[in-house]
Write a structure and sequence with these properties.
This protein has 483 residues and is of the alpha+beta class. It contains eleven helices and four strands. A four-stranded antiparallel β-sheet has the order 1-2-3-4, with helices on one face.
């Protein structure tokens, strides 16, 4: 190949480089509403709930310490960081695909021997023509000593390397968002576990307080039994009610230990106790219903799982373009430069042993049983599937936020009613005891009042924990927790 031909080839390559193949990615229409289904404000701005840094969202110092430990030592987080490192390396190496591949042949010694029955042509009579007798076996057939450089270069005239780079970049961004998604879930899981621990603390306190009340009632009933005013049945039923409260305590102690162990393992530690100073009655999170929720469009900007879905669509779009490029001609160059000699003593005899060569080729698929076309059509369908999945996830995210909003709103109403119920049940216990002492109420009324008080207090504690969890879920579903 002459220099002039090579120059013509390069000129044609640079002309074709501008002919990029494929569709540029464009975000599909997601049909998001202007606001969530809620009476809350949804104005966009820096004060929206999702923009609050997680350290400022939680007020409990022990909870913040647990989250810090989890972000540093949780195994899922650490694995995600390794995935980011792998994706980053793959992305960096893709840029080198624009350069030719070069291999160095340090030293090649090729000695070939053949026996008398090898091959069957005129060349096999060489020894006879020289008047010599060929060895019966292992006659030297060929000798070669070579050292040099070889290169190969496929020219990216249709943008194939760029499209593959888009796939790798999307994969890298996906791993980053995967890490962010793990972080937001981890923070929410730690907070939920911690609030559950505080709920168990409150419940065991209620159970112990109710047990003391039952002990007092049992002593009072025994005195009346000794005085002959009531039967042994009253003692038995009161004792049964006392045992109900007493049996809650070991079960709650078990649940506390299990929850502490789960929290410790969640933050990457061995099972151990968890420090806590606050109760469910303290202000544990900075949450105000007057704060802005932002708009549904903010979900796409903030939620890592939605970003992952979009990066998957970007990658599928690039894969479709690569499948299309495979149907086009490809241009490649190759060459070699070095020394080559038949005898070892002439191995580096310059210029006699010099070897050089360059080759260029244009190849195009003609007939592949429609495999390339089918691969492209399948890639198009795969892209459409990923786009549908992206749209579905956005819809589900908006629905999740709307459901959580109504949960927070209605549970707040339930909390007010539960607090009234507790106040009423406490008053009922007090009045039942006074009336029983005065002979105007039966022991069954006292037992019923105490049973209702126990249940109402346990329900109130559980409702407080569920309300905290709902607020954390709303914070996470809006895309908060990764800042």
């Amino acid at each position: 190949m002459s220099i002039k031909t090579i120059l013509y080839l390069f000129a044609g390559v640079f002309f074709l480089t501008g002919c990029k193949v494929g569709e540029k990615y464009k975000q599909p229409n997601l049909n998001t509403p202007d606001s969530f289904r809620s009476a809350w404000t949804t104005d966009e701005g820096d004060s929206s709930l999702s923009q609050i840094e997680w350290r400022n969202f939680f007020n409990d110092s022990n909870l913040i310490t647990l989250i810090d430990s989890g972000l540093s030592h949780n195994y899922d987080i650490r694995i995600a960081l390794k995935n980011i490192e792998i994706a980053n390396r793959n992305l960096r190496i893709n840029k080198l695909n624009y350069l030719p591949a070069v291999d160095a042949n340090i030293a090649t010694v090729n000695q070939q021997y053949r026996s008398k029955d090898f091959y069957g042509s005129a060349s096999s009579k060489w020894y006879e023509q020289k008047g010599k007798k060929a060895p019966e076996s292992m006659a030297k057939y060929q000798s070669q000593y070579a050292t040099g450089l070889e290169f190969s270069w496929e020219l990216d005239i249709w943008g194939k390397i760029g499209q593959e780079g888009d796939v790798l970049k999307a994969s890298w961004l996906d791993t980053k968002e995967a890490k962010t998604a793990i972080q937001t879930k981890l923070i929410a899981d730690i907070a939920t576990g911690y609030f559950n621990l505080l709920m168990l603390d409150a419940q065991i306190e209620v159970a112990k307080r109710n047990l003391q009340l039952n002990d007092s009632t049992l002593r009072m009933i025994k005195l009346q039994f000794d005085a002959g005013e009531i039967t042994a049945l009253a003692i038995q039923q009161t004792e049964s009610q006392r045992l109900v409260a007493a049996s809650l305590i070991p079960d709650l102690e078990k649940e506390i230990t299990i929850q502490e162990n789960s929290l410790r393992m969640l933050v990457g530690d061995m099972p151990a106790a968890v420090n806590r100073n606050n109760t469910l009655n303290d202000s544990l999170i900075n949450f105000d219903q007057d704060i802005s929720l932002g708009s549904p469009l903010d979900i796409i900007r903030n939620r890592p799982d939605i970003k992952q879905a979009e990066y998957a669509l970007v990658a599928a779009n690039a894969q479709m373009n690569v499948a299309q490029i495979m149907r086009y001609p490809s241009i490649s160059l190759s060459g070699v430069f070095g020394v080559n000699a038949m005898l070892a003593k002439n191995w580096f005899n310059i210029p006699g042993a010099l070897l050089g060569g360059i080759a260029g080729g244009v190849t195009a698929p003609v007939f592949r049983n429609k495999k390339l076309k089918n691969q492209y059509e399948v890639a198009k369908i795969e892209r459409e599937k990923v786009e549908l999945d992206f749209q579905r996830r956005v819809m589900e995210a908006v629905g999740e936020v709307s459901n959580t909003i109504i949960t927070v709103e209605k549970q707040k109403e339930q909390l007010n009613l539960a607090e009234e119920r507790v106040s009423n049940s406490e008053l009922a216990v007090k009045n039942a005891s006074l009336l029983f002492k005065s002979g105007y109420a039966t022991y069954l009324e006292v037992i019923t009042a105490q049973s209702n008080a126990l249940k109402s207090e346990l329900d109130l504690v559980e409702l407080k924990q569920r309300q905290l969890n709902a607020c954390v879920t709303l914070y996470r579903s809006l895309g908060g927790g990764w800042r």
